[in-house]
Amino acid sequence: MGISRYRYLHYDVFTDRRFGGNQLAVFPDAAGLRAQTMQQIAGEIGFAETTFVTATERPGTDVRMRIFTPGKELPMAGHPVIGSTFALARTGRIAEGRTDWVFGLNIGPIPVSLEWSGPRLDFAWMTQGTPEFGRTLDDLGKVAAALGLGEDDIRVTGLPVQQVSCGVPFVFVPLATREAVDRAVPDTRLLDFEAYVFTTDRGGAADGATTYSRMFAPMFGIAEDPATGGASGPLGSYLVRYSLVRPEDARSILNLQGVKLGRPSWIHISIESSGGAISRVRVGGTSVFVAEGMMDVED
User: Which class in CATH covers the domain with range 132-279?
Assistant: First the structure.
């Protein structure tokens, strides 16, 4: 077995400044790497996700991309799609000025729309699947205990704890205040689901955020995620379904995540609906280049 050298780029995603948002490592030319090696690399880097880009495998897509957390491969995720778009634009894989791109993920094709300022990519939108509203978790005491919260922190909202998916399922836990969101301390012995806690309470803040949130997924090797694009589409869909935002305002939802970690992340959500039926889900943001390096791999 020989040693091959692979280039990777480090981006901070869903932020306009370094050391905010969610970290991502992108391997823009990962041809020849086995899945087992990709998983080992993701564990070695230790970011919430690492992406590996190879040649397209199906018509209608531009590249194949696989996404790994330190502990598991994912079918789809938001910040890896947005960050990888910026990385491929930087390397020239996505040509300057191109406005549409399609990633081939494990879940299937994921289209991305790109917005440019001259030669600079400014913003990217990914289109997610329409939402699937799943089971509700009715034992609020059990949910609260798993999150280190009081049952009343959830019950006072009058909203359901429910699983929603636009490709990857998350359990959405509505809380009354930002203080309650910040107070959550998951018990990894009890938490057996991807928990997305959020509030629409602004707490007197003038940051303009529609929602304030945190995400915990220790079963994937992610104690807490600074920004979760894959959960933001379902979050926006939950807000629409339970009338927490008006349909006309749902095309411009701003989700603030990662504050507790010191990595504030600004995730834009656009939900289109008619007659109560959600027809289009998009999640977008910007990304900042931080660094690049080379990794020697024996594969």
Answer: alpha beta
